[in-house]
Structures are given as structure tokens and as C-alpha cells.
Amino acid sequence: MSRTSEMEYSPEQLHEFHERTVRRGTQLRRRRQVIVSGTLALVLIAAAIPIAVLSRSATSPSPTLAVVGAGQYADVAWHNVEYPGLNFATTQYPHVLGCGTNSASTRTGYVFPVEVQQVSYVQPLGGPRLAIVLVRCRAGSPTPSSLYAFDDVKANGKPHLFQVLLPPMALQTFWYATGFSLSGNQIAMVARGADANAPICCPDVSGVMHWHWNGARFLGPKIDLHSTS
Known about the structure:
By secondary structure, the chain is of the alpha+beta class. It has 2 domains: 10-60; 65-227, no CATH class. It has 1 helix and 13 strands. The chain has one helix at residues 11-59, and strands at 65-67, 98-99, 111-112, 114-124, 130-137, 145-153, 159-166, 169-170, 173-177, 181-183, 186-195, 205-213, 218-227. The strands form 3 sheets. Strands 8, 9, 10, 11, 12 and 13 form a 6-stranded antiparallel sheet that branches. A 5-stranded antiparallel sheet has the order 1-4-5-6-7, with no helix packed on it. The longest helix is centred in the first third of the chain and has 49 residues, at 11-59.
């Protein structure tokens, strides 16, 4: 024979059970709020990290060109260096003008020495020491300028060409300059230009050329032009 016992609770016990239930519910809600808040904080931190990294990348300064001494270039005779493209033997005008001992115009007799207008030495951040050299032909009359960068000196004492920054004829124009300047990560040069098919004596445009160091090489030139007429 089975017997079912019925338990009866006093009002005081029922009130105590109610209070326990309320306290337990409050504890559970607070614990859940802490977990949610912590998870949300982790999500916000994770999202903020790449944003901060991108922000630093966007605002980080570009590699800088520090002006330094000659170093390994100290004994280089820059007027005797071979500058690719400096002679004008293959241009329509002035095709008879050769420049330097390796000029293709040597046999014509119209060969002029190289005039070194400016040499500056820079140390790019994380790169080799560079020699920036501005040259032209010493022909007795205004001749176009060319800009070169060298990055080393070979065992035979000849500098190694790193980059031709401005060939004698760029964008179908002869460019005339007297010097350049270095600032931050840029080379800037004021120049005058004449159409390659026009008389070499008469520049008709002028402007400022810029080369930007991107960490591995120079980009440019970017030319801001205006007419001189």
C-alpha cells in the first residue's frame, strides 16, 4: 500500500523561498550582464586594433633622404663618368652634339666635355648611400641637363648607375637646370624646357620637377609646368 504524503509550508517558509528565488534571479542576471559586457569589450578591442594599425600606417612619415658625406664616392671624378644617353648623336637636333669620351659623335669632332653642375649625397632610410648628379655638356652655349643616381663604386673606381632620373630629352623636351634641392623624401629641381624639334637655344616652358623616394627607388619626375611666353 502506497502512501502519498503532502508537505505543507508555513507562510514564513513560502516567503523565504520567494526571497531566495528573487536573489538567485538577480545573481543570474548580473552574471549574464558581466559576460555580455566582457564579450562586447573584446569585440570592440579586436575591431580597434586593425583600425589603429591602419591609422599609424597612414600617418607614418615616408622614408627620408638624409644628406650625408661623399663616403665611398670621395675619389670619383664625376666629369669622367659615363652618363647613358647624355650625348645627342641619335636625336634629330642637335644630332652633331656629343658629350663625354664615349660619345657616338667622337669621330665627327663635335665632342664636348661633361660639366658637373651639382653632386649631392643622400642616405635613404633602409637604402644604400646614393650620389645624385646633375650634368650637362660644356658646349659654350646652353645645353640640356640630365640627372642621375648612383648607388655604389665598382672595383675599377667607376660608380654604379642606380637610376636615370632625367634623361637629356624627357617627354620630347630638352630640360635646362642649374641645380636641385633635397627635402624630406623628395628631390626638387627648377627647370626650363624647349621642344626637342625646336631650336635648342629657346626654352618656352618652365616649371618644377619632383622625384619621390618610395623606399626602393625614385618615382617621377612629376612636373608642374607653366608657359614662359
